[in-house]
Structures are given as structure tokens and as C-alpha cells.
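User:
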Amino acid sequence: MQKILIIYPILPVVLLNFIVAIHMRLMVQKAIKSREVRYRWFRVYEGAAPEYMLMARDHYKGFFEIPILFYLLCVILYVINSVDTIDIWFAWLFVLMKFVHSYIRMTSNYVPYRAYSFYTCFFILLCGWVNLAIKVF
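Assistant: Predicted structure:
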């Protein structure tokens, strides 16, 4: 199997990261324009702010948590030249579920669906790391 195939799933997640950043920026602009939040709120992120803006901000912040472990896993697999078909499946399943999770967060934000998609992403990533551990040890 070509090891470069493990890099391809990283690209849609990076794209999604930019989409979520733009979404957050739009929500911030909406809150500022409607005067639901003042610029000074951004100094220490304290005080009242509209829920839709906080949700968008939290969604964006989440891209610097679990996805970092996804990027790291893919890069390690690439570097140690140990990419198998199952690794590719785990990576693309993670991408799919990350898009589902983000879609839910940016639309209905229905917590049970959001939690289900998050824990599915988490479990897929955990399986990828366990698979790597088995290969290494």
C-alpha cells in the first residue's frame, strides 16, 4: 500500500477547520453588528455573550483538541512507513464523522446527535491509536 494515502484524509479535516473558523468569524461579526457583544468582551472573554457565538467559538476551539491526535496519528503512520488498509479506513471514517459532527454543531446543535457523532469520532481515533500500538509493540 502507498503510504501517501494516509495523508489524504488530513486535507479535508484541515479544510473543515477553515470552514469552522469562517463560521465562527461570521457569528462574531453577527454578534458585534447586532450589539449583543462589545469588542471589549474579547480582551478576557468574560461577561455576557450570545449563545450562538459561544457555540461557534467552542466548536472552533475543539479543532485544536481531538483532531490534533488524528493529524499526529496519520503523520506517525506515514513516517514509520506502516500504512495498512485498516489505517486508511479508520482515517476516512474519522473524516466522515468529523464532518457529521461539525454539520450538527453548525446547524441544529442537538446534543444527543452531537454526542453520538463525537464519541464515534473518538472511538474511531482510539481504534487507530490501538492499531498503531499493536504495530509498534
